[in-house]
Amino acid sequence: MPSLQATLRHQAILTVIGERGQASVNDLSDRLGVSAVTIRQDLRDLEAERRLLRTRGGALALVDPGKEMPLEVSSKTHTAEKRAIAAAAAAHIRDGQTIIIDVGSTTSALAELLPGKRKNLTVITNGLTIALLLERHPEITVVVTGGTLRALQHALVAPLGNVLLQHVNADIAFIGCNGIDVRRGITNSNIAEAEIKQAMLAAARRTVVLADHSKIGVVSTAFVANPASVDRVITDEAADSKTVARLRETGLAIELVKRAMVDAVAD
Q: Which parts pass through the membrane (predicted)?
């Protein structure tokens, strides 16, 4: 049970973030007259209650899971968790493989880790941000799916987004999502992106879903796949333990990134 002072701070923090959509640790520290250490703990507490989203150096107002965020915004949420999940995902990649990397903030974090660490990779992606990130690295061959541009995510989708994937046999597909639920499966906030995710899953021998803890137990608009139809989910230890246990009962392998690893990659 938080103290009265902590409860009042929490209310003040939520008011500021509710009005502005976001706030930095330094700003909240100045406004409330407490240390940055105290504010960071307040933000951790509020995030645990699912009342806001922590970012590097601050927090964002909580967004309805059915509402799509621009890539630039989602990349600022749960940054340390996404980096740690990306590092765990990179450990599954071997030199010389052909991999599919879906559009998204966690998958982009994975792409950032590849240059200089893996040789002779072929990366197939529908993410223009990912393609531009990798284009200057001769050890990586980049193949872009083609298709219709969705500016919000800088993603290529149907029509024509799935054609190339019908002719691909990749080693691993790394897919992002907006929700993973025991009954409703893996879901996404946009139908067109859900369709190309399905094509990516079909084009790979192994399939890995990258999803930070805020996606576990969430149901979004468009169905992507049943949990049992993917090989692995990589998430972080803050994921709801009951939901994780129920997902494992479906036969889904879930790899939990430990808190220490998240802390190690945090700024």
A: none
